[in-house]
């Protein structure tokens, strides 16, 4: 079940995945889904040639996020 919840959390993020899981009779909180993401092992990176970085603000002066992207195959790191 953890694998299914992790897949939902990775595809949709916390709150949308929480709503979908509740609809599918798998009640779980968004905090639990985010905890599953943090505990999940990272995939092997291999050799990188080009990396893109994007930063954004959820709420200015309070919450920020960053994303790293392999520009060769356009996958998140």
List keywords for this structure.
77 residues; alpha+beta; 3-stranded antiparallel β-sheet; 3 strands; globular; Transposase
Written description of the protein model:
This protein has 2 domains: 2-39; 44-77, no CATH class. It is α+β, with helices and mostly antiparallel strands and 77 residues long. The protein is globular. Strand 1 and strand 2 form a beta hairpin. A 3-stranded antiparallel beta sheet has the order 1-2-3, with no helix packed on it. Helix 1 (2-12) packs across helix 2 (14-23). The model has no long low-confidence stretch (mean pLDDT 84). Helix content is 40%, strand content 25%. This is Transposase. It comes from Pedobacter vanadiisoli.
Outline of this structure?
The chain has 77 residues and is of the alpha+beta class.
């Amino acid at each position: 079940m953890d694998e299914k919840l992790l897949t939902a959390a990775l595809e949709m993020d916390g709150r949308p995945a929480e709503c979908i899981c509740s609809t599918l009779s798998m009640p779980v909180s968004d905090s639990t889904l985010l905890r599953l993401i943090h505990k999940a092992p990272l995939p092997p990176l291999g050799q990188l040639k080009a990396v893109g970085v994007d930063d954004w603000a959820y709420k200015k002066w309070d919450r920020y996020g960053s994303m790293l992207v392999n520009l060769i195959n356009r996958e998140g790191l």
